[in-house]
Amino acid sequence: MISFEQFIMDDSGPIYSQIVRYIKRGIAAGAIQDGDELPSRRMLSALLGVNPNTIQKAYRLLEDEEIIQSHTGAKSCVVLDERRVETVRNQLLENEAGAIVNAMKQMGISLEEAVALISRLWNSGEQ
Amino acid sequence: MISFEQFIMDDSGPIYSQIVRYIKRGIAAGAIQDGDELPSRRMLSALLGVNPNTIQKAYRLLEDEEIIQSHTGAKSCVVLDERRVETVRNQLLENEAGAIVNAMKQMGISLEEAVALISRLWNSGEQ
Amino acid sequence: MISFEQFIMDDSGPIYSQIVRYIKRGIAAGAIQDGDELPSRRMLSALLGVNPNTIQKAYRLLEDEEIIQSHTGAKSCVVLDERRVETVRNQLLENEAGAIVNAMKQMGISLEEAVALISRLWNSGEQ
Amino acid sequence: MISFEQFIMDDSGPIYSQIVRYIKRGIAAGAIQDGDELPSRRMLSALLGVNPNTIQKAYRLLEDEEIIQSHTGAKSCVVLDERRVETVRNQLLENEAGAIVNAMKQMGISLEEAVALISRLWNSGEQ
DNA sequence: GTGGTCTAGACCACT
DNA sequence: GTGGTCTAGACCACG
Fold first, then answer.
1. Average pLDDT of A77-82?
2. How do residues C47-69 score in pLDDT, each as one tens digit?
3. Rounded to 10 degrees, what is the CA torsion of A93, A94, A99, A104?
4. Alpha-helical regions (H) of chain C
5. Within 13 Å and on the Cβ side, how many CA atoms surround B40?
6. How far is A58 from chain B, CA to nearest CA, in Å?
7. What 3-state DSSP class applies to C101?
8. What are the phi and psi torsion angles at C107 (to 5°)?
9. Cβ neighbours of residue B58 under 8 Å, at least 6 residues apart?
10. pTM score above 0.85
11. Beta-carbon separation of A100 and B111 below 8 A
């Protein structure tokens, strides 16, 4: 069963998008793998304190991307092969790293300064 | 006149928020300073391919934060003192860089991988 | 449910203002009372042939005046006490009737002519 | 020369409309007659404290209705015959009286009460 | 030309 | 179904 303990909801876009992103990050990290079960819509909506429709929409999008499978009356589960994992991972990395690069360039700092800043933040979160 | 050449629109939240963020990043970078003129609503909306009202909303928010001033019939311009610049810069670093580092960590990649990825994207965007 | 059957849209100012005025007149008349439900944004917008956002703006203004209350997912309803009703009624009489009488006087007609004209229009609208 | 001393600007619609209405009311009252001269755009804009373009728009609308005539380099003046005056007067009366009737009906008072209210306001403004 | 406002349509989250 | 928000286009008054 996929855990949503580390899920933190912010205001960066629609809630269903944040859920989709959370799942994808877990896949990229290897924490979510082929065959893993997803919580039921009802359970997850109670856990996150959001409307069941919102969970439904997130699952629907993942289904459209063929990342999960849902069957009536049965639990939804993750369906992934090697290539799919790689694709998800690369898409995420490009997006996130691209965001950093844009931000840093707009703030007018050099690559070296950016790397230094990221390294510092990385380690400060370590403790 | 403030340049929007480096502005890149993505799907990270409302367009007006992206514009606000772009301005603030420019302020943090020192590229935008006290007294600088903003492009008019029409000009910028044509340049970015969005509705003039979207620009208006971004400018309105910046005005509410007392970062710019608008007068009917006259150009909007930036109004900043030293302290305000510092505040803007700190808010940006807290809100953005931290979130991005967290995303990388959630995806389970190492600092070295992250730095390599960022360097690659940095240079590929250079061209 | 508050009825909008007698609502007549003219070109006297913004549509949302006309809606606000209509509600206030109903309150002054006692036809709209504490606890009454308002039609939903969609229903009323279809009935009046305007955009749902226009209705939204009218309701928002009434909410700012603490005349109605809105909660996401639930119907909006009127919240009034005796004093509030009196205030609304007095504002209406001051703002409207006086202006109309002035208009008549500016046009240089006598009270008798005005009364005759009003009586005729009153009955012609009766049908 | 038509006097604008009694002109009072409120927020009931666009300024140019208020100017047009003021002229028409004067015509209906007989205070403005065929051949009367209008103030120049520059003078009136200074007197009312509004932009010359706004005056220009009001004059343009009156010209379109063939109520005034403008010639380059010469003063604008009113051009009216008996029938035109009658038409203007009737349109205004219908509009104003119609507004009263709507307001009163919506406020749920009877014709007798409405007449009483109007009579009282009429006389109270007399003093 | 400038900024300010009104109306419109689509999308999101919630009961 | 409900209300809330974002984007869009047109109009108004001003320098």
1. 94
2. 999 999 999 999 999 999 999 99
3. 100
4. 15-29, 41-48, 52-64, 82-92, 98-106, 111-124
5. 7
6. 17
7. helix
8. -85, 0
9. B15, B16, B17, B19, B20, B23
10. yes
11. no
The Cα–Cα gap between D29 and C102 comes to 12
DSSP per-residue letters across D23-60: HHHHHHHTSS-TTPBPPPHHHHHHHHTS-HHHHHHHHH
Q: Which residues contact C63 (CB under 8 A, 6 or more apart)?
A: C69, C70, C76
Amino acid at C17: S
What does the alpha-carbon distance between residue B108 and residue B96 come to, in Å, rounded to a whole number?
Answer: 19
Q: Which nucleotide lies nearest residue B70, CA to C1'?
A: E3
Verify whether the Cβ–Cβ distance C10 to D115 is below 8 Å.
no
| pLDDT tens sequence across D43-75 | 999 999 999 999 999 999 999 899 999 888 788
In this structure, are residues A55 and A15 in contact, taking their beta carbons and an 8 Å threshold?
Answer: no
Inspect the interface and report whether the beta carbons of C115 and D111 lie closer than 8 Å. no
- A98 to chain B: closest CA residue: B121
Q: Subunits that touch chain C (at least 3 Cβ pairs < 8 angstroms)?
A: D
B46 touches strand F (CB under 7 A): no
Residue D105 corresponds to which tokens in the numbers above?
A: 């009906």
Q: How far is Cα of residue C122 from the mean position of the Cα atoms in its chain? A: 18
Quick one: which of B77, B74, B87, B71 has its CA closest to B24? B87
Residues facing D78 on adjacent strands: D68
CA angle D29, D34, D37 (to 5 degrees): 100
Which chains have at least 3 CB atom pairs separated by less than 8 Å from chain B?
A
The amino acid at residue A86 is E
Distance between CA atoms of C16 and D76, rounded to whole angstroms? 37
H/E stretch holding A69 reads strand A68-69
Q: C12: Cβ under 7 Å from strand E?
A: no
**DSSP state, B35?**
T
Given a contact cutoff of 8 angstroms between Cβ atoms, the answer to whether A68 and A33 are in contact is: no
Nearest to A24 by CA among A55, A75, A54, A65: A65
